[in-house]
Amino acid sequence: MSNKKQNQLNEVTKSNDDKAMTTNNGVKVSEDENTLTVGERGPSLLEDFHFREKIMHFDHERIPERIVHARGFGAHGEFQVYKDLSEYTSADFLTQPNKTTPVFVRFSTVQGSKGSPDTVRDVRGFATKFYTDEGIFDLVGNDIPVFFIQDAIKFPDLIHAVKPEPHNEMPQGGSAHDTFWDFFAQNPETTHTTMWAMSDRGIPKNFRQIEGFGVHTFRLVNSQGQSHFVKFHWKPLHGLESLVWDEAQILHGKDVDFHRKDLYESIEKGDYPEWEFGIQVIRPEQEFDFDFDILDPTKIWPEDQVPVQKIGKMTLNQNVTNVFDETEQAAFHPGHIVPGIDFSNDPLLQGRLFSYTDTQISRLGGPNFNQIPINRPVNEVHNNQRDAMHQTNINKGQVAYHKNALNNNDPHTTAKEDGGYEHYQEKVQGHKIRQRSESFKDYYSQPKLYLNSLSKDEYDHTVDGFSFEIGMCNSIMVKQNAVNQLNKVDRELAERVAKNVGVEVPESNEEVDSNAKDSQLTMEKYDIPLPGHSVAVLINGNIDIETLKLYAQTFTENKLNYAFVGQHPKNISESFGITETFDTAHPTLFDSIIVLSDGSDILPSVEEFTELTYKHNKPLILNQNAAQALSKSNAKISLEAAGVFVSDRPQTISQAFNRARYWDR
Ligand code: HDE
């Protein structure tokens, strides 16, 4: 994190080291084990102020969780723009390549409550707070570039449909239930985003390897007042990866913290997650040049038509000191923008501009949430707002109004030329109506574009995603209606899902007649770098320390994470040993395995580990002994299959692990 925000946080960071315990009023505490009672076995006394204060504070430790995106994890970092973008914007942090802007990012799931598993099938929130010198810019985005609905007035309906059903509060952390799929079928604008969520994008491998999208169309405005329409993107420098659904489900139990742990540990180790910041730009005169409406948040701007320009880089390089104080109290808001950035008329964005401040008032207990350290801008704040719950400033002076003569009219306003925020002066005319624009009503072309652009494996996984989720519904009517919707996009998808969930294939083929593709929609466009890959080395029998050292050295050279997994924990040398056993380690927690055997029979746990790694299409390296023994065992694997390497050389990792999954196994 860069200095400015760090210094500000340091000022309020408290350590207990070498400190005497006190009450909140600063009185030193002499005893913290027993309440004040009359005699050893007598009743407790109300005058025990230390006890009452301690319990009272504890009773109020929790605050309401976020109504959506309750489950999340954050980290600090910094952002730097590559070049001066003053052609498009006057924003100081986008025009000064020498400047480092502190950021705080919170990743989240949407549906589940605060304690729900990380690896559920869901959209992921990707919210970034830029602490710029001109105030806070929050980019409150997701890892999927489109949203389920087009108008903010439908948000409560969407969320009521996807959240656990009210009569039994099930299911937790997922959309595989009747009300979501009923909403899907009755509200066709949901089709595009649902297509993404049912594909591999819905089950990301971790937070480091997701893309991020501002979703809405914003404006960039330059110092001459010229505006361009823009969409914001985050492109991960660690590639894009997903889980396999079976693996994700096992992880719900094996490690509910799978994603947050990965982020936390990567940062602790110094393997800092990084993204490039990108913009797609549409000139004002091009607004109506496309076969979609650029204000419709259920549409992408296909990158083959409007390429993403990479304009900067973000690095997350510091974990929080306290998750509640920072991550839980972080208050993001799409309405937090700075000079040089403005809104479009996207009706979903416009509604969000009300919701986020409103929700913080009940979640964070009043309108002064901006004074909480994580929410404070790094530049100074001066205005005439006063009082209210949890005021932590001491506001000096007699005057708290504008305009005034008593205080020289301070705090004074600032002209646009000197950095005052002025809204883009868009000319708007019309009748007051409640009506969806006709240009928003093509619900199916872009879902078809998405499906056409997937690889065969990605397409098959999407069929599986729909089949699981719709298959989990109880109502035959809901299942049939959902499949009828799919039939309006893609006949094959509808036929396969109908068969898998046991409903009728719709009579007529209503699919979108288009083979159009976009090259940037498949996840396979990214290479997967070796650093950060995690491998479990399974020790079957006695493997000499020199061999293990050789493997460890190769892993370290290539920045891999690794664990030696054996039957019992054992310190082989001072610096390393068998750190994990077959009881604590699990194949879903690693990206790949290497099996080293001394020629003895394969242990049942090694066999199980190997089979599951194989089933989840991950790379396997077997030494000659292990390969021989496994071929004689009952393990359900084929040594000839893709991604199974027989080798005694640690260097085989660079060949074996350059693909995350061998779908063609
Ligand atoms: Fe949100 N959303 N949202 N949302 N959203 C919230 O704000 C809301 C939408 C997103 O890590 C809430 O502080 C409405 C789109 C993220 O703290 C709430 C509408 C996108 C986060 C809220 C939307 C998002 C939220 C809940 C429709 C992607 C988590 C707690 C008009 C572009 C931020 C809170 C964090 C959180 C309302 C739609 C992303 C209730 C009314 C579209 C990443 O204010």
Automatic annotation (TrEMBL):
<keyword id="KW-0560">Oxidoreductase</keyword>
<feature type="domain" description="Catalase core">
    <location>
        <begin position="22"/>
        <end position="410"/>
    </location>
</feature>
<dbReference type="InterPro" id="IPR041399">
    <property type="entry name" value="Catalase_large_C"/>
</dbReference>
<dbReference type="Pfam" id="PF18011">
    <property type="entry name" value="Catalase_C"/>
</dbReference>
<dbReference type="Pfam" id="PF00199">
    <property type="entry name" value="Catalase"/>
</dbReference>
<dbReference type="InterPro" id="IPR024712">
    <property type="entry name" value="Catalase_clade2"/>
</dbReference>
<dbReference type="InterPro" id="IPR011614">
    <property type="entry name" value="Catalase_core"/>
</dbReference>
<protein>
    <recommendedName>
        <fullName>Catalase</fullName>
        <ecNumber>1.11.1.6</ecNumber>
    </recommendedName>
</protein>
<keyword id="KW-0575">Peroxidase</keyword>
<comment type="similarity">
    <text>Belongs to the catalase family. HPII subfamily.</text>
</comment>
<keyword id="KW-0479">Metal-binding</keyword>
<feature type="region of interest" description="Disordered">
    <location>
        <begin position="1"/>
        <end position="25"/>
    </location>
</feature>
<keyword id="KW-0376">Hydrogen peroxide</keyword>
<keyword id="KW-0408">Iron</keyword>
<dbReference type="InterPro" id="IPR024708">
    <property type="entry name" value="Catalase_AS"/>
</dbReference>
<dbReference type="InterPro" id="IPR002226">
    <property type="entry name" value="Catalase_haem_BS"/>
</dbReference>
<dbReference type="Pfam" id="PF06628">
    <property type="entry name" value="Catalase-rel"/>
</dbReference>
<dbReference type="InterPro" id="IPR043156">
    <property type="entry name" value="Catalase_clade2_helical"/>
</dbReference>
<comment type="function">
    <text>Decomposes hydrogen peroxide into water and oxygen; serves to protect cells from the toxic effects of hydrogen peroxide.</text>
</comment>
<keyword id="KW-0349">Heme</keyword>
<dbReference type="InterPro" id="IPR020835">
    <property type="entry name" value="Catalase_sf"/>
</dbReference>
<dbReference type="InterPro" id="IPR029062">
    <property type="entry name" value="Class_I_gatase-like"/>
</dbReference>
<dbReference type="InterPro" id="IPR010582">
    <property type="entry name" value="Catalase_immune_responsive"/>
</dbReference>
<dbReference type="InterPro" id="IPR018028">
    <property type="entry name" value="Catalase"/>
</dbReference>
<feature type="compositionally biased region" description="Polar residues">
    <location>
        <begin position="1"/>
        <end position="13"/>
    </location>
</feature>
